[in-house]
Amino acid sequence: MRQCLYDKDGTWHDIGSSWRTSDCMSCYCQANGDMGCCQTYFEPLGFPDDCMKEFDQKACKYNVFKKNDRSIPCHFRGRMRQCLYDNDGTWHDIGSRWRTSDCMRCYCQANGVMSCCQTYFEPTRFPDDCMMEFDQKACKYNVFKKNDRSIPCPIYGGMRQCLYDKDGTWHDIGSSWRTSDCMSCYCEANGDMSCCQTYFEPMGFPDDCMKEFDQKACKYNVFKKNDSSIPCPMPRQ
């Protein structure tokens, strides 16, 4: 394929392109026509009892404010030390990586935000007398004869390396790396790649401050507009 289809809103995207979806996911269209998508927001926890949270669909973030006056923002009680994976209700420490019960590979970032990518691929090219079936326990598709499931079928194609189109680099099966454009990627056994953004974009800092992206460190710095040597506080996350 030369494009990827995002099923939830029916939009097509060119190979190598990245975009934010209408339901607040950050997606990338890979060279083989597969997509890698990560959630762009996190759900705040641990704020005072007289506060409430509300999701801003347009900005793709939660706002936390006083229950009796939504113009007064609330601060979180300290920095989140764990990430919650909503689909199975499990908590994971900052810096940890794990495979979820629904076959996603996740990473809990320092700011309490998770990056999750699909760990499997769906085979599309196999003989007509074969069928595929998903093995939830192994997180993979099996392809076998329609009339005898004990006979496996070949899946056409296959690579020993993954190509990251944006910088033209090749990576071995099973390897993980950070790209030159600040993505965290993994080369899967079938030659597919899963890539997630490694940074988050700060919001809600004081009006006399500005943000600037550090390409080398793959992070945003926030500092005073009139003096870049003075860092600005960011809302606790």
What labels describe this entry?
N-terminal domain of TfIIb, three-stranded antiparallel β-sheet, mainly beta, globular, about 0% helix, about 240 residues
3D structure, described in words:
With 237 residues, the chain is mostly beta strands. Among the domains are: 43-79, N-terminal domain of TfIIb; 201-237, Single Sheet (N-terminal domain of TfIIb), CATH 2.20.25. The chain contains no helices and 24 strands. It has strands spanning 3-6, 11-14, 18-20, 25-29, 35-39, 51-56, 61-66, 69-73, 82-85, 90-93, 97-99, 104-108, 114-118, 130-135, 140-145, 148-152, 161-164, 169-172, 176-178, 183-187, 193-197, 209-214, 219-224, 227-231. The strands form 9 sheets. Strands 3-4-5 form a 3-stranded antiparallel sheet, with no helix packed on it. It is globular and about 65 Å long. 15% of the residues are buried.
The spatial strand order of the largest sheet comes to: 3-4-5
Q: What is the level-2 CATH architecture name of one domain? A: Single Sheet
Instruction: Estimate the helix proportion, in percent.
Output: under 10%
Q: Oligomeric state of the chains?
A: single chain
Instruction: Give the C-alpha Rg.
Output: 21 Å
Query: What is the fold-level CATH name, i.e. the topology of one domain?
Result: N-terminal domain of TfIIb
Note the overall shape.
Answer: globular
What is the string of helix and strand elements?
A: EEEEEEEEEEEEEEEEEEEEEEEE
Counting DSSP E segments of at least 2 residues, the number of strands comes to 24
- As residue ranges, the low-confidence spans are none
What's the average pLDDT?
A: 78
Largest sheet: 3 strands, antiparallel
Give the strand content.
over 45%
Task: Compute the number of helices.
Answer: 0
Distance between the termini: 39 Å
Please report the first level of CATH classification, the CATH class of one domain. Mainly Beta
* Helix/strand/pairing category: mainly beta
